[in-house]
Amino acid sequence: MQQVEKKRKSENKIIPFIPEGDFYFTKGVEAFQKRKFDIAEKWLKKAMEAKPFEPLYACQLSVVYTETGSYHKANQLLTNVLQASEYADCYYLIANNYAHLGLLNDARKHANIYLEKEPDGDFTEEANTLLELIDIDEDDMDEDNWDLEEEDDLLIYQETIFYHMENKEWEQALPLIEDMMLIFPEHRTAVHEHAYALFFTGEEERAVEIEQQANSEDPDNLYSHTNLALFYHQLGEEEKARHHINVLQNVYPIHEQQKLRIAVTLAKTGHYMEAYQRFRPLMKNQMKSHLSYFQWYSIASYRVGEPSKALSLWEEGCKRHPKLSKEEGPWKMI
Question: What are the E-state strand segments in 51-111?
């Protein structure tokens, strides 16, 4: 009788299922293949928590970031892997990201390192193709007019700062902007990024002073007007903001990035219909890495009576930029 009772107790025991890294990794790859990048990121992060020293998991997560245009974030992850191991695939993946960023010297360097380490590796064909494309691209450039190494350094700063600014990581952006201002004093846009980051770290007065000075020196500067319009709006000084908004309403730049800056500024200052009209003609294929495009285009769309468009933009933005999912949707911001 005792033996039967023991058997029953044994059969009633539930053995908990504790997923290991491979399970999470498989789920992450499945989500990635369905292009559900936000879900893929969550699963792959769980895989990395389960097996923090498995380089394959980090590499796959970097590919997710590459697909969503977060090239700097991808390379940061891959660099961390290389610091802990000699996982050669990282070199090709880094090279690919640098190529996307236009940093051709760095792309070539890492592609060659990969080929040295893995002459018959999984990415050998891709690495050789990448090097051929880099050579073709550079043949088209006038090397007498460009210092490629200096240009690469500037682009690295710009891309890194852009990533932090888009993600509202002001404390990380500020020291990089200050370094760039010292190294590349001729790059005047950094002054405006500096003021913007200062404003949102609590130094509103200093930020306004910087932009007022810049605006007095160059009254036609677009970045001064976008910053001052937003600064004064945030400070509740609507009459002062109105002056700069009026200027922006009469400016139609050629470059997509400047067009986006005006559209976002108009949306942030409550001019939703005008913002919506500025967002519509933007070339979407150039906006994929801009979290602000999806966020504020979605908000403007919702405010002008286009809820389905707003939802579509928000969902795509969350897939490409998982951090956006932590923000309130446009329907909650009324």
Answer: none
Is residue 149 a part of any domain in this protein?
Answer: no
Q: What is the pLDDT of residues 168-214, one digit of tens each?
A: 888 888 988 998 888 888 788 889 999 999 999 999 999 999 999 99
- Reference 331, options 317, 320, 306; nearest CA is 306
Residues 108 and 199 in one domain: no
Q: Number of C-alpha atoms within 13 angstroms, CB side, residue 253?
A: 19
Radius of gyration (Cα) for the chain, nearest Å?
24
Do 105 and 57 lie in one domain? The reply is yes
- What pLDDT, on a 0 to 100 scale, did the predictor assign at position 8? 41
- Encoded amino acid at 177, one letter: I
> pLDDT by residue (tens digit) across 271-298?
999 999 999 999 888 888 889 999 999 9
- Domain with 41 in it: what CATH number? 1.25.40.10
Q: Residue holding tokens 């210092």?
A: 147
- Of 39, 57, 37, 38, nearest to 47 by C-alpha is 57
Q: Which domain holds residue 240?
A: 168-251
Side-chain-facing half-sphere of 249: CA atoms under 13 Å: 14
- SS3 of 253, please? coil
Using the Cα atoms of residue 21, residue 22, residue 27 and residue 33 in order, give the sign of their dihedral.
Answer: positive
Q: How far apart are CA 294 and CA 113, in angstroms?
A: 37
What's the whole-model pTM score? 0.57
Residue 2 within a domain: no
Please tell me the distance from the alpha carbon of residue 204 to that of residue 120, in angstroms, as a whole number: 56
State both tokens at 74. Answer: 């991808």
User: What pLDDT, in 10s, does the model give residues 92-137?
Assistant: 999 988 888 777 888 899 999 999 998 888 898 989 988 888 876 5
Q: What is the DSSP string of 12-37?
A: H--------HHHHHHHHHHHHHTT-H
Q: What are phi and psi of 281, to 5 degrees?
A: -80, 0
Look at residue 69 and tell me if it is in a domain: yes
Burial of 6 per CB tally in 10 Å (0-12, 13-18, 19+): exposed
